[in-house]
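Retro notes - structure team

What went well: the batch runner handled both jobs without manual restarts.
What didn't: labels got mixed up in the shared folder, which is why I'm recording both outputs here explicitly, each with its sequence directly above its tokens.

Job 1
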Amino acid sequence: MIAEETLVKELKQRDTQAKAFEVLISTYKERLYWHIRRIVLDHDDADDVLQNTFIKVYRNIEKFKGDSKLYSWMYRIATNEALTFLKTKSRKLGVSSDEFIERKANTLEADVYFEGDAIQLLLQQAIARLPEKQKLVFNMKYFEELKYDEISEILDTSVGALKASYHLAVKKIESFLENN
């Protein structure tokens, strides 16, 4: 695996950019896909958002200053792209983002990814019903096993606020699972 500093340098140079971008995609594609998928819930939508994320990364790599890790920077872009996608889709349907996601959560049973895994399905439905911030924090902490410091850097939120969001999310998920 190529060192991050080297990769960033190669991404910024015309003669090495194409190859470096291939490395970037192969290195981060799956992690970013699952992060996006947990937000938008649908495979095709996640693919679209992932593609938009990589396009934005490509177009804006010159703006990456190295103040954070490359993955943290891309993760923030992916998060913003996924949330923008949800807002756009929900606006087209004339509903709130939360209502749109709840509708999506109710259709998860037909998704091959969740087929036959009732517990996973229930968990995803519970997560989908969380407010946006709690959902993001829960997914980052629980599924991606990020530390609060990393989440704080990505979401630009204090560690204390993140801990509170995570705790509330866990309580709401537990309540949903107990009642379903």
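Job 2
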Amino acid sequence: MPSPSPSRSQALPEQTATPAQPAVSGDHPGINELFALLAYGEVAAFYRLTEEARMAPNLAGRINLARMAAAEMGHFDVLREALLRRGVDVVPAMTKYAPALENYHRLTTPSTWLEALVKTYVGDALAADFYLEIAGSLPAEAADVVRAVLSETGHSQFVVSEVRAAVSASDRQRHRLALWSRRLLGEAITQAQFVMAEHDELVDLVLSSGEGLTQMTEFFERLQETHKNRVRELGLG
């Protein structure tokens, strides 16, 4: 929402700014769908991180991924409770999202420890960007749930130092992982589009400002821009 013009602010000095109203109501069905999608994502991430921890070359790496996996189940519990408060059983609600998310993980299965780290940092961040974009249109209580389950990102910072060290020592690794990061982006956007095509309630959340397809295009452009920034952080840009 644009800020008031200076002339309007000066003409009505006695008025105070009112908080921006959410673009959707608290009972919008898309909120349940978003929570369910997030919930399945957390469960899938738990099993993926547990499996990929076995690829770590040392105990420290396994512990780091195990810690991240444990956090995912904590996030799942937050979403389960949020859905219960809305009268929704989490398991049947989230099952419909299994095909898209499992397909993404199937198509982006890492073959090396470094690929696993890049996917953990870049791939998971792309998903977080997707959800946080939608959260901006939600009422405060629902937005707080989304932000709460996406707020714990510090535990993945070890990835940056490990990947940067590896690519600094090897141009071959840098080029290979740069290609891998582009594949992650392409598959993430493809699956996000598939999910939204199958679930109109989620599309309605994204388009809630009323700007239509223009906003949808800008939505995916922003995802690509933040992806570029993270790739540079890893030394792959």
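One thing worth noting from job 2: Confidence is low (pLDDT under 50) at residues 1-19.
We'll revisit the folder naming next retro.
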